[in-house]
Amino acid sequence: MPSYALLGATGATGSSVLRHLLYSSSSSDLTVNVLVRSKSKLLAAFPGLDRPSARAPTPTIRIFEGDSTNPDVLCAVLQDASLVFMCVAQNGSPMGTTLVQNTAAALIEARRRQAQPRGELTVIQLRSASLNPVLAVQVPRFVHRIVCFCLAAGYEDLQRACVLYEAAATEALLQYVLVDPPTLHDARGTQTTGYRLIDTTDMEDKERQKQAICLSYADLGVAMCEIASRANKLRGQAVGVTATGPVRQTWTVLAGFLIQGGLEHLDYRYGRENVGVVAVCILLLLGGLLYSIKA
């Protein structure tokens, strides 16, 4: 019976993955080890998850409560697992964030501690299309640079985690697949509308590499499960995901994260007082421009 591990199951991506595993008929013979910081929060989102269902065959769920950066906890979570969904993340992009790379380091350390011989383990790591050259080039350069500036800390954290996975793969500790979606929307939505995986290694079929700018979390969860089912063929690759149906867009949420990350990055690079002075000058210039136009 195959066994998966899921890290970050209470977040928007992790809950979408878990939801699909629970209600997909093809997952009924799975064992899923779920790691969360708060078991009560998980059970509030998925009532009865800790009790077997009598209505229909569902995966066997084992819930672990703890920190994803703790190798001791991960040793238990990864026991017998052949694949792990890495959905650990945090809202925004606070400067100095190291959550993803620390989780990757802890996971690799847990693999080192596991008794020999180890079974194969594939990490399905959520990344971003902004970090995939084939997909990022489809976005206007000015927009791409703004997004990368505002989310610089989070992207750096992701990139360092990926470097750790690459090194671990060369040691045969694990394999990995990177998942690169566009902007993600509708965190609370559960309705899927369709998606398609993008093979970013196929340089001949440019049309198939086109990526929509929006994707729902619900469709991302299903896409990650498909990638898991094809992990043997996708190891070491970065796989894009694009929507094929309508997406309920929640740009205000994303704008808030961008503004917060951008301000923190400006503060980090130039100092809060200097940023404040520049902001006031810009507002005064805009005010003067508007006044002159009206006059």
TrEMBL record:
Record flagged with keyword Coiled coil: no
Keywords, alphabetical: Membrane, Transmembrane, Transmembrane helix
Domain NAD(P)-binding span(s) in chain numbering: 8-202
GO MF terms held by the record: oxidoreductase activity, acting on the CH-NH group of donors, NAD or NADP as acceptor
Membrane-spanning ranges: 275-293
Tagged with keyword rRNA-binding: no
Highest taxon above the source species: Eukaryota
InterPro entries the UniProt entry points to: NAD(P)-bd_dom, NAD(P)-bd_dom_sf, Polyketide_Oxido-like
UniProt record similarity statement: Belongs to the avfA family.
Protein name: Putative sterigmatocystin biosynthesis protein
